[in-house]
């Protein structure tokens, strides 16, 4: 008797806007092996990102920090929108490295992440239904913990024991 094949996971085709390395946008599609983590639309993601960064620019601690690193807010918001569409909708449209960006910034400290997450959660509560806000918050907090540990590790003197 021939061996049975493993069941094939359902794949779905999701259209989305892609950005090439030269910055030009085009419409494409990505075959994904997994469904979205929770129901939220790309428009809701973009609205959350825009609302969050509007709040960041006004924040007494985060505003100056981000202003030192972000020179083109629309491009930054577009990139972060792609990050969240990748993390939530699994579109595969983000090709950056958040860990590397935060580690190389030089002035991002682990103390910034609770402030960032508090502002992000406040914005989520204003822009999304409670269930979607809670699901997105859980992902953001996992990412925040990982980034905080990465920033801590980047600041560790060479040869010293890691502290987590």
From TrEMBL:
Q: What GO terms are given for molecular function?
A: heme binding; oxygen binding
Instruction: Look up the domain of life of the source.
Output: Bacteria
Spell out the Basic residues composition-biased ranges: 7-19
Q: Where is this region: Disordered?
A: 1-28
InterPro entries in alphabetical order = Globin-like_sf (IPR009050), Globin/Proto (IPR012292)
Q: What is this protein called?
A: Hemoglobin
Q: Which organism is it from?
A: Gemmobacter caeni
């Amino acid at each position: 008797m021939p061996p049975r094949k493993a069941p094939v996971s359902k794949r779905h085709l999701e259209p989305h806007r892609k950005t090439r390395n030269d910055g030009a946008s085009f419409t494409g599609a990505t075959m994904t092996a997994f469904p979205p983590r929770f129901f939220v639309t790309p428009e809701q993601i973009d609205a959350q990102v825009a609302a969050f960064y509007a709040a960041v620019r006004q924040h007494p601690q985060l505003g100056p920090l981000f202003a030192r690193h972000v020179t083109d807010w629309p491009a930054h918001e577009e990139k972060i929108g792609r990050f969240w569409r990748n993390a939530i909708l699994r579109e595969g449209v983000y090709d950056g490295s958040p860990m590397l960006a935060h580690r190389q910034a030089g002035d991002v400290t682990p103390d910034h992440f609770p402030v960032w997450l508090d502002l992000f959660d406040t914005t989520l509560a204003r822009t999304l239904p409670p269930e979607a806000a809670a699901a997105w918050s859980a992902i953001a907090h996992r990412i925040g913990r990982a980034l905080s540990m990465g920033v801590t590790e980047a600041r560790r003197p060479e040869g010293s024991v890691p502290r987590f």
